[in-house]
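Reviewer comment 2.1 asked that we show a complete input and output for one of the modelled complexes. We chose the iron/sulfur cluster case, as it is the one discussed in the main text.
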Amino acid sequence: MQPPESLMDSLRTHPCFNEDAHKSFARMHLPVAPNCNIQCNYCNRKFDCCNESRPGVTSEVLSPEEAMEKIAVVKERIPNLSVIAIAGPGDPLANESTLRTIRLVKEGYPEMSLCISTNGLRLPEYVDELYSSGVRFVTVTMNGVDPEITKEVYDSVIWNGKRYEGREAAEILLENQLKGIDLCVKKGMIVKINIVLIPGINDDHIPEVVKKVKAMGVYIVNILPLIPVEGTKFSHIEAPTSEERKRLLDLCSSDIRMMRHCRQCRADAIGLLGEDRSNEFIRSNPCGSGCGPSSNIISSDNIVSNRMAIASESGITVDSGFGNTKRFLIYEDGKVVDEVHIDTNCNTYGRPHSEHLKDIISKLKDCDTVIVKEIGPAPSRMLESEGKKVIISDERIEKLLQRPIE
Ligand code: CLF
Ligand code: SF4
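Response of the prediction step:
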């Protein structure tokens, strides 16, 4: 189906919906949606590592406000960013923060195309709001149109506060997916269907799914190979080969436009498809698995080489005072090289505040510059007596580090 004329420009720059755009235009996923309302038998969102790339994985979950700050940083570094999307790590429509984020993005970055990827369970009730909030690209992951087949794909569905399993769960999900797709198409949104190819479960059924969604006015279909993940019901199923997937893509391409360049992105993916740069922008190293602290958001141009401790909980601005910060990010040559955590509950155990300050200072002993949002005269003197430079600032870290520290 031909998309509305008014969306042709957005389509021209969408790296997923338009293969010609995927080498020149970047997308950014905002991981603001941790909750999910169904359980797919191939999904395990507990595993979280910055080295793993697949849907459902993220290195951090952001609030809408943090997501906005992150966009500003990413936009400066990736000027060809054209799409802002919400794709998890759970289901966007099972999280209130999704719509709040979308509205903020629409207001702050009206030039961006907005995209969401959902399981479709709550799509019918959100179509109007998504549309009025500027979302024009919608992906629904739909693994079958026959509940007898899809009941094998889903462990459970939470609907109206009740948990369903088996055929009943599959019927509820399917009814909402079809209704949601229909409403989106009628609204003039561009719809993509993702189908996970699960050998032995839905492989023979996929052509029927494609025919059905084509008849409904869906623009493009994406067949993704199952990634067998540890700890899931489908961990024992072997992933389909690229030949098996290609055979299906070829078979179905006479019916509808097929996506062949999907990279099965993480929920916090950033950059061109195939060149994920999310690791550059995470605020800290949360996985502790040897990935190393991110060299994130910092440009090293014009930076005087020294070891600086910056009080920042957001990782984006200098946002905390010396005595109450939960952490210092340690920078060398403009890059994050370490992180120092401060126990801010210590005063509740009756220790004098001066002990707490001494503790912090000893943790920063090998830093020559300390940058904080605020600091009292006593700790400031203590630091200076140890030869450390104290800078008070509430600037963006990136900006701050772009000029030499005198
Ligand atoms: Fe993200 Fe998905 Fe929007 Fe693209 S990804 S929400 S449509 S902006 Fe793209 Fe990644 Fe494949 Fe998704 S390559 S997994 S299809
Ligand atoms: Fe995981 Fe997405 Fe399925 Fe939810 S809908 S269980 S997040 S794959």
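Residues 16, 27, 29, 83, 85, 87, 115, 117, 137, 139, 222, 262-265, 273 surround FE(8)-S(7) cluster (ligand 1) (CB under 6 Å). We note this here for comparison with the apo prediction described in Section 3.2.
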